[in-house]
Amino acid sequence: MSVSLDDTSRCPVDAVCAGCGGSAVLGGRILGVTTAESHLGVFCITVCARCSPEGWEMPLSWVTLQVLNHCEHLGITSDAMARKMEAER
Ligand SMILES: [Zn+2]
Ligand SMILES: [Zn+2]
Fold first, then answer.
1. Please, how many CA atoms are within 13 Å of residue 47, restricted to the half-sphere of its CB?
2. Distance from the CA of 7 to the center of ligand 2, in angstroms?
3. From the CA of 12, how far away is ligand 2's center (Å)?
4. E-only strand ranges, 1-89
């Protein structure tokens, strides 16, 4: 079974952008889920069309939680994700 760590088809979209805090209603921003990579693993994050998670400083505890959540979205364990990241490097 091959799983793409960047697959966001089963990730929930947050009500607000993680970057600017804008909601989909205010200002008509379109929110979408994108993936970001950290040394802990790949995780998903909701951003608007104008924000990109690249280079963001995010709290480690939050990133850890997001990585675990994203493993769940993908239906894999965090061990499987770590192995996959190792293999792709
Ligand atoms: Zn934004
Ligand atoms: Zn996810």
1. 15
2. 8
3. 7
4. 31-38, 41-48
Average pLDDT of the chain, as a whole number = 90
- Say what the pLDDT of residue 28 is: 67
Domain boundaries, the chain: 26-88
Calpha distance 32→2 (Å, rounded): 24
Q: Assign 3-state DSSP to the chain and report helix, strand, coil percentages, each to 5.
A: 35, 20, 45
C-alpha 6 to ligand 2 mean position (Å):
8
Q: Which helix (H) or strand (E) holds 2?
A: none
- Residue segments in the chain with a per-residue pLDDT below the cut of 50: none
Neighbours of ion ligand 1 (CB under 5 A): 17, 19-20, 48, 51
Cα of 23 from ligand 1 centre, angstroms? 8
Q: The pTM is what?
A: 0.87
